[in-house]
Amino acid sequence: MNLNFPKIEKKWRTVWEKEGIYKTKDKVKGKKNFYHLVMFPYPSGDLHIGHWYNFAPADIFARFKRMNGFNVMSPMGFDAFGLPAENAAIKKGTHPRIWTFRNIKTMTKQLKNMGAVYDWSREVITAEPSYYKWTQWIFMKLFNAGLAYRKKASANWCPKCHTVLANEQVVDGRCERCETEVIQREIEQWLFKITDYAERLLKDLENLDWPEKTKIMQKNWIGKSEGSIIKFKVKSLKLKVDEIEVFTTRLDTIYGCAYVVVAPEHQIISNLKSKILNLKEVEKYIKKTKGKLERDRLMEDKQKTGVELKGIKAINPFNKTEIPVFVADYVLGGYGTGAVMAVPAHDERDFEFAKKYKLPIKQSIESKLPITNYQLPIIEDGILIDSAKYTGMKSDDARKAMAEWLEQNKLGHRQTNYKLRDWLISRQRYWGSPIPLVFCEHCAKKIKNLKTSEFKNFTKGELLNPGWFAVSEKDLPVKLPDVKKYLPTEEGKSPLAHSEKFIKTKCPKCGGFARRETDTMDTFVCSSWYYLRYADPKNSKHFADSEKLKKWLPVDMYIGGAEHTVLHLLYSRFFTKALFDMKLLNFSEPFSILRHQGMILGPDGQKMSKSKGNVIDPDDLVKKFGVDSVRIYLAFMGPYDQGGLWQLNGIVGVRRFLQKIWTIKFKLRTENKELAILLNKTIKKVGEDIKEFKFNTAVSSLMILLGETEKSKEISKNNFETLLKLLAPFAPYLSEEVWRNVLKNKKSIHLERWPKYNPKTIIAEKFDLIIQVNGKFRDKISVSMGIEKDTAQKLALKSEKIKNFINNQSIKKTIFVPGKLINIVI
RNA sequence: GCCCGGGUGGCGGAAUUGGCAGACGCGCAGGACUCAAAAUCCUGUAAUCGUAAGAUUGUGUGGGUUCAACUCCCACCUCGGGCACCA
User: Fold this and answer.
1) A432: alpha, beta or left? (left if phi > 0; alpha if psi -120 to 50)
2) A704: which nucleotide lies closest, measuring CA to C1'?
3) Which of A114, A319, A484, A782 is the most buried (most CB within 10 A)?
């Protein structure tokens, strides 16, 4: 009899829904809550095999937890706002709202088919006003706490998407979404002060159960470096004294400092304009570098360029030497002080520059081979030479001593810098949550001339951004108007800027005329807190009830792709910490345990995408093999975090496996001892494997158990039920069909407890002792468990095979590993 | 360039963390059932030599440590991911 998968799938889906077995209560007596979360998808249109690869094994884990007595919440929702959705909608000529909600409908249907334990009553859709009201509310909190600020500065601009992008969204100098080359553009924008949290974001990584790789990536992205600021006095011909501050991590090499380099955008150039003798040349250079894209600065020809500021000298505070000052674009304006001290002998970049412009190279760290001019620099720490009173010191000690000297003489101080930049969150696009801010010209003037005593009447954010106010709580949400003109514009303004009706409003402070911010929020803002909303998705008074938050959060198990490491995963950590500081949360890390799934590539080895035509549709597979087969095949394919090329090679094997489970039920008979032992071992193995996300080997041990069951041609009802329970997380439909329809159980198998194994049964009385001669496997004999070395050796030497190999030679020694092997060395 | 992670049969992949390499599945070959095919079942399946028993080689390459190495150490090749003038 063949299995009719579509029929049983439909049947049980309806029954489960009716019985509500996947509805999550906030509290169940005697059960610990477990918050199991997969990263929610954006409504791209169709579910593809990559979604399934992410969600299906994750669901196996959730089901396993349920069966182990946890009150599991496994919610699902949609990351519905944002560029990708909007771009796709525009391409199709559809309004983003229509396009998005249509896709959500089809995807929900597909997701429901997957047989997962999602509690759909908790669904969250970020583009719904009931959700983004709270995105805006949190924005308001961040703003008032002084964590949001407006700034006109050079930003990454995607000419195709007509919007600015965060640093994290620029990949290889291109827009993360449409792969257009990003240019720099001066534009007013909103940023979150994520840099205020750099140290905590770094330090708290330590205690997270996250993949090491992910932690390292975040660590590198935050990019902490400890060093010193040194003040170089600047001398011009007219003897007026100014200063250049440089940042260095290699203070110990200061005696090798040959010159100072400033970035093209550095203040000192305009400050000392009148004293620069070659001003024309300098300005020409600066103009040239400004035109270059940041990426080109690097890629162009790898050649460093720069111009000396003639007539200007800097004085090294340590040895009072006068050294030249250069402007060069290999120094970044946005990092440190925008100026560096150049030590060609001990820094690769300075070395290259010095080589090109024939500048002196002075060694100050000892090396085995003398650095003759224009060989390689010595960049490692070492012993100082030619460094006055610091000569002979180790780099480490010298840095300390020198920093102290700087501080005592007020010539500098220790300093820690981070690579992390503030998070740019405004987008000049339609399909996003409006930023709930208004600007009042009148109040702006007032705030700018405020007396200190009046500061207390304003929030930190209002003082930081004169004239800007958050929309008051009662007026939230600021609804995204249903405008006809939603296409992005080239002038760098949001489409909302054309809607007078939207813009005009009242100032919440003075009641006078004010205008709304027209930019929308980066979609990553919406997804930085969605995991909180699942705890209480329908709440209209608060983003989530604090008691419910306490019950569920932080997320116990978070599963998703590694591509979000420096985006979503970093932003969410920032949000959690900021809300924690405002006492709105009682935890400061959102995701206790994190696991990644690998990426499934198309059969051609390329990333799956509609344009490449290599997308695999799970619906086709489901039709052909059934949901359970697809679930198990995805689990069985290989290690979960590895991914790989999509190929269908093994799925028939899985289908056969399920068919056999279906037929074996006709063999129910009596107990079989050996099978019982294997069953106990399998309970242990499958459980351990699921815990470690080793779904592939868990499936394989189920297959072994089935094979042995078939061979023995008999299985007791009890043991068969146990086998079904082990299978239940993997194959929810078939296991239920057999459980209820064949074995006539009344309650769902998915409400059963995970079987316990008897540790005593799996301890064997005998084992195969491996006999090696000179480390090579030669024979094995069955011996009793507690066998001692002497007995083992005697038995081993009795073996004919072993006798042949030893061939009467004398035995030098034997190595005995209890319970495993004996190795005879001749 | 720097930082991670890989490289095991025809294919996807196992290997209790130093102890029988190739579990499990696919594929392939032979056989059974069948008029035939599909499905199903049984047997075999790393390579080389051998009719066979068996022997030798074998986990990217070269070296090393060890009674014993896919596993540890050194050097290199190669693929994937991340960062990229951060001083």
Assistant:
1) beta
2) B24
3) A114
CA neighbor of A177 nearest in space, from A497, A491, A524 = A524
- The string of pLDDT tens digits covering residues A494-539 is 899 988 999 999 999 899 999 999 999 999 999 999 999 999 999 9
CB-CB contact of A718 with A672 (8 Å): no
A649 touches strand B (CB under 7 A): yes
List b or e across A20-46, with b for residues whose CB sees 16 or more CB atoms inside 10 angstroms.
eebebeeeeeeeebbbbbbbbbbbebe
- As given in the structure block, the two tokens for residue A365 are 């760290």
Residue type, A794: K
Whole-number distance in Å between A228 CA and B87 C1' = 11
Per the rule left: phi > 0, alpha: psi between -120 and 50, beta: everything else, A757 is beta
Beta bridge pairs of residue A560: A596
Q: DSSP state, A799? A: -
**How far apart are alpha carbons A539 and A279 in whole angstroms?**
63
Instruction: List bases in chain B with any atom under 7 Å of a protein Cβ.
Output: 3-5, 10-15, 19-21, 23-27, 40-42, 55, 67-69, 81-87
d(CA A349, C1' B79) / Å: 30
> Quick one: angle between helices A695-712 and A651-664, nearest 10?
40
Q: Tell me the pLDDT tens digit for each residue of A459-490.
A: 999 999 999 999 999 998 999 998 888 888 77
Residues 404-423 of A with CB under 7 A from strand B: 417, 419
A817 touches strand B (CB under 7 A): yes
Token reading at A423 = 């998070």
Cβ(A405)–Cβ(A389) below 8 Å = no
Alpha-carbon distance A729 to A731, whole Å? 6
- Taking only the tens place, the pLDDT of each residue in A294-336 is 445 444 446 788 999 998 899 999 999 999 999 999 999 889 9
Phi, psi of A23, deg, nearest 5: -70, 135
Compute the C-alpha angle A169/A171/A177, nearest 5°. Answer: 60
Is A396 exposed, middle or buried, given 0-12, 13-18 or 19+ CB atoms closer than 10 A? exposed
Q: Residue A168: its pLDDT value, please?
A: 66
Cβ of residue A298 near strand B, that is under 7 Å? yes
pTM for this prediction: 0.93
| pLDDT category of residue A355 using cuts at 50, 70 and 90 | confident
Rounded CA-CA distance A322/A343 in Å is 14
Complex ipTM, two decimals? Answer: 0.94
